[in-house]
Specification:
Blueprint lengths: L63 E5 L12 H13 L4 E4 L11 H17 L7 E4 L5 H13 L4 E4 L13 H12 L4 E5 L11 H7 L5 E6 L4 H11 L12 E4 L5 H6 L4 E3 L7 H12 L3 H34 L14 H20 L1
Parallel strand pairs: 1-2, 1-8, 2-3, 3-4, 4-5, 5-6, 6-7, 7-8
């Protein structure tokens, strides 16, 4: 499995959370070999560790459900760190394999660097306080420049993050040469103090859609330990999973994490050899999402197909309504959720009723578990 340093903070989370100091050993870690072709990869240029035994290794990623958490705000749009922490613990208690902060659901584009660190730090501290010390945190660290992306990776480590989820740069898309994106990921992986996962999400990056060939090539880098495919291309996922011998719920494989990016194809991801999914609907119905993986791992195919249909319908409610709908559903069914930061709109009364109706089926199942 993917391995890294222990950077867990020990103080309790609070509303005025300070930024935690970086680990004194902030050089990129060596990770376990995860690819059939990784033996030919060059070692990280700035790595000082000579072996895994030289490092304090903890919180490996394991196959399953990962939730990109929502960032919560008060009515004045200041961060609501108390709710951030409570929500993280609710997800952990539901049995998720890990949590992702600073994703699209977490409104990363609406947060300052300081606020990003507050959200991740609060999440880590809340998990530790609740006894979930081993639950890993993946931190969204994508930016338009190589330099800032590396800076975000370092800040993720300092805040208690374990892995970085990185989008390709897209603002100057017409000027990118054929190998620019590959060089970007290799440069970030060389300098990041935490392992990274490639985030393939064409809708968020001007249509840039990394091919299976590109991702398999990047998987040779020892500090690139997984990918998230929100493109929804299960053929691509199958090719990457096979080429990297990805970890699955029924076998450790190489440890490479080949993740789907949406709960509506969780079963499809697992059947073709993927590792699980990082899914936004997990904010609303984490137990239901986890149950899909549990049924599949137990070989309960009739049950898992029925449940996958429920989850797919619920996921469509989340996809079609976006962050605003997800927060509205959390408010309606669980008593918290709040608002998104402007310029995202507030849900109207009519929209709130529609969202409640759209999410009702999956929430009813969630509450039955």
């Amino acid at each position: 499995m993917s391995l890294h340093r222990n950077t867990s903070p020990t103080s309790r989370f609070r509303q005025d959370l300070p930024v935690m100091s970086p680990s004194p050993q902030a050089t990129p870690p060596m990770v376990a070999s995860h690819s059939p072709f990784s033996q030919s990869s060059e070692s990280l240029k700035s790595t000082s560790a000579s072996s895994l035994e030289d490092m304090n290794v903890t919180r490996p990623l394991r196959p399953g459900i990962y939730v990109p958490t929502v960032a919560f705000f008060k009515e004045n749009e200041d961060l609501d760190l108390v709710t951030v922490g409570k929500h993280a613990v609710r997800l952990a208690k539901a049995g998720v394999a890990g949590i992702a902060t600073q994703g699209s659901n977490g409104e990363a584009v609406h947060l300052s660097h300081h606020e990003r660190k507050q959200v991740t730090g609060t999440t880590r501290m809340a998990l530790d306080d609740a006894g979930f010390h081993s639950l890993p945190i993946i931190v969204g660290c994508g930016s338009q420049s190589t330099r800032e992306t590396i800076e975000l990776c370092k800040e993720a480590l300092a805040s208690g993050g374990d892995y970085a989820l990185v989008l390709p740069p897209s603002y100057y898309k017409p000027m990118h040469k054929s190998d620019t994106i590959v060089e970007f990921f290799q440069d970030v992986a060389d300098m990041s103090p935490i392992p990274i996962l490639i985030y393939n999400y064409p809708a968020a990056v001007s249509g840039i859609d990394l091919s299976s060939d590109t991702i398999c090539e990047l998987a040779k880098h020892p500090n690139i330990i997984g990918c998230k495919l929100t493109c929804g291309n299960t053929g691509k996922l199958a090719r990457i999973a096979a080429a990297t011998n990805a970890a699955t719920p029924t076998g450790p494989g190489s440890g490479f994490m080949c993740m789907g990016g949406s709960a509506d194809f969780t079963l499809q991801t697992l059947i073709v050899g993927g590792s699980g999914v990082i899914c936004g609907i997990g904010n609303v119905a984490p137990k239901a999402c986890v149950k899909v993986v549990d049924f599949y791992a137990a070989g309960k195919m009739a049950e898992v197909k029925k449940l996958q249909a429920i989850v797919a319908r619920g996921d469509w409610a989340a996809i079609s309504s976006g962050i605003v709908g997800t927060k509205s559903a959390l408010e309606t069914f669980f008593g918290y959720g709040g608002v998104a930061r402007r310029p995202l709109p507030r849900a109207t009364t009519t929209e709130g009723k529609k969202f409640a109706n759209d999410f009702k089926e999956i929430v009813d199942f969630e509450k039955s578990l």
